[in-house]
């Protein structure tokens, strides 16, 4: 009889394991209460830091996991999330649904109040256990970007489908796309190098070759379609937004030049927009990002304090061209683009220090909050221009757009350089009265650029015609060059930026 009982147990073990595994995959975990403790300091910080800002396009925040005791830099504690949302709520911010966010990008109609779009990548278990109750406390909502092939697997790290469905029913969450099974690294060449399986052709070990572009297209499209079916098959609305795995929207890929649009085309055919945390140029939510089809997010990590997050949100908040009467006196509003990472403008204003062998210093003015500028005038005064012609200054308008315009001033000439990257080229060169100091005024509106130097020399350029509104929007940048190691550095002594036709 004992042998019979043992045999019965052995026979049932596989079925028990299946039952346990299925139950784990379909489990709904208990939720943790929202953190206790005072958030008065966070609320006060939010009111102080952000309540003076005008109603502006939404800022997109990127979270990953929420949890306790994790060593991961991508896991924010419940207490930190609670304080961050308390600060935003105190500052009068509301959170957008994905539908509201997409509507804004498509119409340009700014939401009626200050707003954020809260996004959480990967679909981790902590969203249900910790984040959901915190959202409820502040009457906010968020979007979870699911790797659908991992939902219900690798428990308890990822959400289960029953948890996803409960979150959706709460009205606090909607669910968007983060691939089915392409959020991973794969071998992408014969040497064994690994990179994004979404953005690259993978190495086929059995055939000892890379996928063909056609095979790559089929694989990527099949994965995206599967992820969409997974979401809609569980009663969820069709996803409208896609978040790039590893935020690699602009990472190098191993596709031949003629085929590099495959992924972009596949995403554009299925989603209203895409999200990334890194970009080659600022792409905050707005006209420029809508035209590019990619929105850049502010990433929130374990080390993000309330103060640092509020500072980054303010930096990304759109402002009008005349928001700072004296831009050169506000170095914190500039971003050095010469690789120096210095927090000052000394190399451009004559205070130093100067770069070593490069002979070049450059900075962009409010690059994130000026991304959608159009219709403004820049006036600058530059001095120290060398009679030998070994130095010059640049004033850039539409900085970060697809067609920036650079006005180059030397002691005796003005040049207009149009375009960016390999397409950059000089279109106009005019003589100036020889002088160490010149004053330049540049007005931009749409594709039109008007340049005046010393009130005498006038250049008007029609510019390129782009089909999408936002392709030409952008702000202001400055640079100085010294081509002689023993020469003198030129410098800017004055700068104003204002809306075109407006007052200083």
UniProtKB/TrEMBL annotation:
Leader sequence segment: none
Location(s) in or outside the cell: Secreted
Chain ranges of the NodB homology domain: 114-245
Listed GO MF terms: hydrolase activity, acting on carbon-nitrogen (but not peptide) bonds
GO cellular-component term (any): extracellular region
Signal in keyword set: yes
UniProt keyword annotation of Cell division present: no
Gene Ontology biological process terms, A to Z: carbohydrate metabolic process
Region (Disordered): 321-353
Entry keyword set: Signal
One Pfam family it belongs to: Polysacc_deac_1
Protein name as annotated: Polysaccharide deacetylase family protein
Organism: Streptomyces montanisoli
């Amino acid at each position: 009889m004992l042998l019979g009982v043992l045999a019965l147990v052995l026979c049932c073990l596989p079925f028990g394991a299946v039952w346990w595994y299925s139950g784990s995959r379909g489990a709904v975990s208990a939720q943790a209460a929202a953190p206790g403790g005072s958030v008065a300091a966070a609320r006060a910080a939010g009111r102080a830091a952000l309540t003076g800002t005008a109603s502006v396009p939404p800022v997109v925040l990127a979270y990953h996991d929420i949890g306790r005791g994790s060593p991961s830099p991508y896991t924010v504690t419940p207490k930190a999330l609670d304080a961050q949302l308390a600060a935003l709520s105190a500052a009068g911010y509301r959170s957008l649904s994905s539908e509201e966010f997409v509507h804004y990008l498509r119409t340009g109609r700014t939401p009626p109040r200050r707003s954020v779009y809260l996004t959480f990548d990967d679909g981790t278990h902590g969203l249900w256990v910790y984040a959901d109750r915190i959202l409820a406390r502040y009457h906010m909502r968020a979007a979870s970007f699911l790797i659908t092939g991992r939902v219900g697997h690798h428990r308890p790290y990822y959400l289960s489908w029953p948890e996803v469905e409960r979150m959706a029913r709460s009205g606090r969450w909607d669910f968007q796309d983060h691939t089915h099974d392409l959020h991973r690294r794969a071998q992408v060449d014969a040497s064994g190098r690994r990179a994004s399986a979404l953005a690259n052709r993978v190495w086929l070990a059995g055939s000892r070759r890379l996928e063909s572009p056609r095979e790559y297209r089929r694989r990527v499209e099949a994965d995206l379609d599967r992820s969409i079916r997974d979401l809609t098959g569980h009663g969820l609305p069709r996803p409208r937004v896609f978040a790039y795995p590893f935020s690699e929207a602009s990472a190098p890929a191993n596709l031949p030049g003629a085929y590099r649009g495959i992924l972009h085309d596949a995403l554009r055919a299925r989603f209203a927009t895409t999200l990334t945390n890194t970009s080659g140029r600022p792409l905050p939510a707005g006209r420029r990002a809508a035209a590019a089809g990619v929105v850049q997010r502010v990433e929130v990590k374990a080390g993000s304090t309330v103060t640092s997050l509020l500072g980054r949100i303010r930096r990304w908040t759109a402002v009008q061209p005349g928001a700072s009467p004296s831009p050169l006196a506000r170095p914190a509003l500039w971003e050095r683009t010469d690789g120096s990472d210095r927090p000052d403008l000394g190399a451009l204003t004559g205070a130093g220090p100067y770069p070593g062998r490069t002979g070049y210093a450059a900075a962009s003015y409010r690059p994130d909050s000026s991304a959608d500028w159009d219709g403004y005038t820049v006036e600058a005064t530059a001095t120290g221009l060398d009679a030998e012609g070994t130095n010059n200054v640049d004033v850039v308008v539409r900085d970060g757009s697809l067609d920036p315009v650079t006005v180059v001033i030397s002691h005796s000439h003005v040049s207009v350089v149009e375009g960016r990257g390999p397409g950059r080229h000089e279109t106009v060169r005019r003589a100036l009265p020889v002088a160490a100091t010149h004053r330049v005024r540049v007005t931009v509106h749409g594709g039109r650029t008007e340049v005046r130097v010393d009130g005498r020399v006038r250049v008007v350029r029609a510019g390129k015609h782009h089909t999408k509104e936002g392709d030409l929007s952008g702000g202001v940048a400055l640079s100085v060059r010294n081509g002689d190691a023993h020469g003198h550095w030129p410098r800017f002594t004055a700068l104003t930026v204002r809306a075109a036709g407006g007052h200083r």
